[in-house]
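Predict the structure of NitT/TauT family transport system ATP-binding protein.
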Amino acid sequence: MSESKRTPLLQARNLRLGHRTGRSREFVVAIDSIDLTIDTGEFISVVGPSGCGKTTFLEAVAGLVPVASGDLLVNGTPIKGPARNRAIVFQSASLFPWRTVEQNVWFGLEVQGRLNDETRQRTQQILHTVGLEKYMKARPDELSGGMRQRVNLARALAVSPDVLLFDEPFGALDAMTRESLQDELLRIWQSDPDGPKTTAIFITHDVTESVLLSDRVIVLSRNPGRIVADIAITAPRPRISSQWRLDPKFTEYCSEILHALHPEQKAAGRSMTAATESSV
Ligand SMILES: Nc1ncnc2c1ncn2[C@@H]1O[C@H](COP(=O)(O)OP(=O)(O)OP(=O)(O)O)[C@@H](O)[C@H]1O
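Done. Here is the predicted structure for NitT/TauT family transport system ATP-binding protein.
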């Protein structure tokens, strides 16, 4: 099949999403008229002002929020609800306190009836990849916040989803832990020599995080969210985090995204540096 005819992994066409609220069940629009195509293996970040509908979009892809109008397709099929080919990593690691690290990572596999010798072995490899091989038998209360979030990531990876959905997974961590987890996610993402088989949609407020990790950064406008920029981050992979963060192109991409987020500041001719204003 030719490149142009291949079905995209995810397709949003004139997509509108929202929530019914209050007694009147009034419909509040969160996302309006979005057209977006994501290919297999792409790492996409979505940034935008608070309340612009980033989480609503992610939840719609997860099948947790219904489509109000337009289309939202995975592998050419409309999303009707949650499915095992899509896994979410939330901001806070919701681990079962009575289970060990390993048992927590098994959870999704158990629910899907797929826990067996082979998937147990894969779980061990994943825990090794996220640097938790020595903590397999530990309970969550013996772990730091960063380690718990690694377990959360391992749990999502263990079910081998087609799409990994990240809702600000490092947002609640201190700056140093966040940076080390960003570096690790970058390394994990690039560890397969044949390229990633999983596609990522990553919600973040941190512009530098989006440039570090992504192939493309989607910028949404203030509520209701519409796409105001779709910026390809063309830095080759594998990226070495310490080098890429210091590359002048890195700062240029951060500025481009910040300008798309705050067009009024560009119009006013204000200077905007990635170092001082990297958060949305
Ligand atoms: N469960 C809900 N019920 C009603 N309205 C909701 C619900 N969840 C979100 N909204 C509304 O939908 C809009 C988009 O919210 P959403 O959480 O998707 O934005 P966001 O971009 O992820 O925000 P943030 O960056 O602050 O997390 C907001 O107006 C919000 O108030």
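The CA atoms of residues 254 and 274 lie 5 Å apart.
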